[in-house]
């Protein structure tokens, strides 16, 4: 008679009773591995009666071992204790806020990202966090996208990947289109609002996004995910991993492809990426090598759509019109594209030196190269450094041509952090980075309708730049009873070499050196283990960007920006409700803003405004209403003002500039109210229905609040209107998901994302170029319409 077979089952939780999904449960003899499900449950079946040792492990927690004598089906629940040292957490925690940090932040784990990842760009997966507004050039979230936090654009939002800066060193923006489907390789994200903690890279003015990529998974896996939907959107992703081999090694990989025609005409995207990570785990150390790459080829849609087109319902494609690349005969230039490849190499090392000291360090290198190509009709050859030529008696001064503007850049450096915990009540972190950037900017003419004396790939400009960025910071936390004191100091030094105008208006290589000191201090009072209140003060400094330097002389060059950030709030976290309220006051000195004025080289660049501020209240929370229903919501109410502001309009009637002076005005692209809501219902095991809402109040396209000088009346109709703003919008989505398993497949997931179900017609971004013509103000407004009702469906398989 066969021996009886039994089952060991149970649940793995942390000390707070929260389920740990993806924890590894191992039988030591014989060696059998399994992982907990989304509810922290596990099951080991077909076991004969015997004595077993069960080990449970999870990143960030101490391994727990339990010995049992199995003589029948048995339930073994395991509670894991936080580890003093977690090798793969050291790198990112050096620049992260903890649960008692006196700053505003939100954490998203892998599960949060996976449920929304249907192929849209990363910013669209962050829309349910406080004070975030996103937009898409192509209108459907694939291709070029933008993000603002508290009204601050991406150039003021610091992004790091495993503690390594991602923002472009010169423009300071973050282009997630260059890393398609990076969300499928992310383990967790922290979004900080305001100055936050010290970080590497450009100073955080609006906020920071701290990304940690794939970490250890102890069992092997293979995941296949496919999505498809409106506008010809298709995403294919394969994830593979070996699990822990020989107790020391693991290899993980991902391959992705995304294609979309876009909602906007001629706004298609062809995106490819891969991610490979190999790690060695020692007793007290981890060495991980990451190689990941992204390639994007997107048709240009970055100019927006003129307001008079959008407002004319008689035009069939009035909301999707895009004339970039349209030739004189009405055909379309198919290579009106942005084409860019970016490769990343990271070597991450974490070491526990003693029970009190740990170290993390990283070497990194990023290589980017690409261009944007455009067709120019009737271009003046003199503007390309050429002398008009005479052919057959005809002097060619203008010709149709196609040009490519290239960026070939290298970014490399080192980051480090040393953590010292002398007692349970005191800890210190010493960290920093040294990074170097070189960028070659150059342009080629690749085609001319008439020869005009231009040879193949004629180079008509070149501009080489170099930027060194060094920072060092020290942070300490001291716990005194229920009170924790925080102090954080950072020194940052920047050297930038660029081609720009000197005082004699000659274009020569120049350089600038900046030194910043960014102190921070705060206090947190723990009311009990579930509630705390906090307050903090932080200083941030931010350098001008590439255009600020290259389009000015030393006499007109703008100053760096300075921010003093005051934050105070209350947080609560228990099994039923988690949330908080945060108040902020961000006082800017010399904030850089486009005012329309011209500098001494005739360029319209950003100018410093002496006094401006953002003040508001943020609320976020998630409540578990019943076992099957939960509701999460955020809301931000703010006022965003500039004091004593001057806007300048070009007067084309007499060649002068007209000034508009406002004693107090609202900062552009700063809605006074934003909110989000997500109601999640689990009607059956493995199933979910989520109702998702986002609201953004009206916002201005410039800093005048639509004010025009009284001396220049505005005519009605078409362009001649006073409106220079984005209207408010409320968008509702529905997300459906169902997960189940069969014998040979660990998980089968099907999903459906119904976007903008009420078909709201709205614009999330825009631009305005007002001037004076014929004694009146003329507004040239351009908007970026977002897609109406659309859908994305997905099927995933996990083995």
Task: Furnish the topology, listing elements before pairings.
Elements (H helix, E strand, L loop, with lengths): L4 E10 L9 E4 L4 E4 L5 E8 L1 E8 L6 E7 L3 E2 L2 E3 L6 H7 L10 E6 H5 L17 E5 L8 E5 L7 E5 L2 E2 L20 E8 L13 E7 L7 E9 L3 E9 L7 E12 L8 E13 L3 E15 L5 E2 H4 L26 E16 L4 E24 L8 E3 L2 E3 L1 E26 L2 E23 L9 E23 L2 E19 L5 E22 L2 E12 L3 H5 L10 E13 L3 E22 L5 E21 L4 E23 L4 E11 L6 E9 L5 E10 L2 E2 L24 E2 L2 E14 L2 E11 L7 E6 L2 E3 L2 E3 L2 E5 L4 E9 L1
Parallel strand pairs: 1-7, 1-8, 12-15
Antiparallel strand pairs: 1-4, 2-3, 2-5, 5-6, 9-14, 10-11, 12-13, 14-15, 16-17, 16-47, 17-18, 18-19, 19-20, 20-22, 21-46, 22-23, 23-26, 24-25, 26-27, 27-28, 28-29, 29-30, 30-31, 31-32, 32-33, 33-34, 34-35, 35-36, 35-37, 37-38, 38-41, 39-40, 41-42, 42-47, 43-46, 44-45
Which of globular, elongated, flat, extended, rod-shaped describes the shape? globular
Q: Under CATH, the topology of the largest domain is which?
A: Maltoporin, Chain A
Low-confidence stretches: 708-721
Number of helices, where a helix is a run of at least 4 consecutive DSSP H or I residues: 4
Largest sheet: 22 strands, antiparallel, barrel
Q: In CATH's first tier, which class of the largest domain applies?
A: Mainly Beta
User: Rg from C-alpha positions?
Assistant: 28 Å
Distance between the termini: 34 Å
Instruction: Compute the number of strand runs.
Output: 47
The average pLDDT score comes to: 89
CATH architecture of the largest domain: Beta Barrel
CATH homologous superfamily title of the largest domain: TonB-dependent receptor, beta-barrel domain
GO molecular function, one term: siderophore uptake transmembrane transporter activity
Membrane topology: Multi-pass membrane protein
Keywords: Cell outer membrane, Ion transport, Iron, Iron transport, Membrane, Receptor, Signal, TonB box, Transmembrane, Transmembrane beta strand, Transport
Main location: membrane
């Amino acid at each position: 008679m066969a021996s009886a077979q039994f089952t060991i089952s149970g649940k793995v939780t942390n000390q707070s009773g929260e389920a740990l999904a993806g924890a590894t449960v191992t039988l030591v003899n014989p060696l059998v591995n399994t992982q907990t499900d989304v509810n922290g449950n596990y099951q080991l079946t077909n076991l004969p009666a015997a004595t077993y040792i069960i080990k449970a492990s999870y990143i960030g927690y101490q391994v727990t071992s339990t010995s049992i004598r199995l003589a029948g089906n048995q339930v073994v629940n395991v509670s894991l204790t936080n580890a003093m040292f977690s090798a793969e957490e050291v790198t990112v925690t050096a620049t992260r806020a903890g649960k008692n940090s006196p700053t505003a932040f939100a954490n998203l784990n892998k599960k949060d990202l996976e449920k929304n990842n249907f192929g849209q760009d990363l910013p669209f997966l962050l829309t349910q966090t406080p004070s975030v507004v996103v937009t898409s050039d192509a209108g459907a979230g694939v291709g070029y996208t933008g993000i603002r936090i508290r009204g601050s654009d991406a150039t003021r939002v610091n992004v790091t990947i495993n503690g390594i800066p991602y923002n472009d060193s010169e423009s300071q923006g973050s282009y997630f289109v260059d890393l398609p489907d990076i969300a499928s390789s992310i383990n967790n994200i922290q979004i900080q609002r305001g100055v936050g903690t010290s970080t590497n890279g450009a100073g955080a003015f609006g906020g920071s996004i701290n990304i940690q990529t794939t970490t250890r998974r102890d069992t092997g896996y293979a995941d296949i995910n496919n999505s498809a939907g409106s506008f010809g959107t298709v995403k294919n992703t394969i994830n593979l991993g070996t699990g822990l081999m020989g107790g020391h090694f693991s290899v993980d990989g991902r391959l992705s492809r995304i294609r979309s025609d876009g909602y906007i005409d001629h706004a298609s995207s062809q995106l490819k990426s891969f991610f490979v990570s190999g790690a060695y785990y020692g007793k007290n150390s981890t060495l991980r090598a990451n190689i990941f790459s992204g390639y994007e080829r997107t048709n240009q849609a970055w100019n927006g759509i003129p307001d008079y087109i959008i407002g004319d319902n008689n035009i069939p494609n009035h909301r999707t019109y895009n004339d970039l690349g349209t030739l004189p005969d009405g055909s379309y230039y198919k290579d009106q594209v942005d084409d860019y490849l970016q490769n990343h190499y990271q070597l991450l090392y974490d070491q526990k030196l003693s029970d009190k000291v740990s170290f993390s360090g990283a070497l990194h290198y990023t290589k980017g190269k690409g261009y944007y190509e455009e067709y120019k009709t009737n271009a003046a050859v003199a503007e390309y450094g050429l002398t008009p030529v005479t052919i057959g008696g005809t002097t060619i001064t203008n010709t149709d041509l196609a040009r490519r503007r290239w960026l070939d850049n290298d970014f490399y450096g080192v980051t480090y952090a040393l953590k010292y915990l002398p007692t349970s009540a005191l800890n210190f972190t010493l960290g920093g980075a040294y990074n170097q950037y070189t960028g070659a900017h150059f342009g080629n003419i690749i085609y001319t309708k008439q020869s005009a004396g231009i040879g193949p790939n004629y180079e008509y400009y070149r501009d080489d730049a170099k930027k060194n960025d060094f920072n060092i910071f020290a942070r300490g936390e001291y716990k005194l009873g229920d009170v924790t004191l925080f102090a954080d100091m950072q020194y940052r030094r920047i050297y930038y070499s660029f081609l720009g105008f000197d005082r004699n208006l000659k274009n020569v290589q120049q350089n600038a050196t900046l030194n910043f000191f960014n102190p921070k201090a705060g206090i947190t009072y723990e009311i009990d283990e579930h509630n705390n209140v906090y307050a903090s003060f932080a200083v941030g400094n931010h350098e001008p960007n590439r255009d600020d330097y290259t389009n000015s002389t030393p006499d007109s060059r703008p100053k760096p920006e300075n921010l003093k950030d005051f934050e105070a709030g209350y947080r609560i976290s228990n099994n039923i409700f988690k949330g908080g309220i945060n108040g902020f006051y961000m006082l800017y000195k010399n904030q850089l803003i486009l005012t329309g004025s011209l500098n001494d080289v005739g360029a319209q660049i950003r100018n410093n405004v002496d006094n401006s501020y953002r003040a508001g209240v943020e609320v976020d929370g998630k409540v578990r209403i019943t076992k099957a229903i939960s509701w999460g919501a955020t809301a931000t109410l703010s006022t965003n003002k500039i004091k004593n502001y001057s806007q300048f309009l070009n007067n084309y009637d007499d060649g002068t500039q007209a000034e508009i002076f406002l004693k107090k005005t609202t900062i552009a692209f700063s809605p006074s109210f934003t909110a989000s809501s997500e109601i999640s219902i689990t009607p059956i095991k493995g199933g979910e229905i989520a109702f998702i809402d986002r609201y953004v109040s009206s916002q201005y396209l410039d800093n005048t609040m639509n004010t025009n000088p009284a001396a220049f009346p505005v005519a009605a109709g078409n362009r001649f209107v006073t409106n220079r703003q984005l209207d408010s919008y409320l968008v509702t989505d529905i997300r459906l998901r169902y997960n189940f398993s069969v014998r040979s497949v660990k998980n089968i997931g099907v999903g459906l994302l119904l976007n903008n179900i009420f078909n709201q017609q709205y614009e999330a971004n825009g631009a305005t170029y007002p001037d004076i013509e014929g004694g009146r103000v003329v507004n040239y407004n351009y908007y970026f319409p977002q897609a109406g009702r659309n859908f994305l469906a997905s099927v995933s398989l996990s083995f």
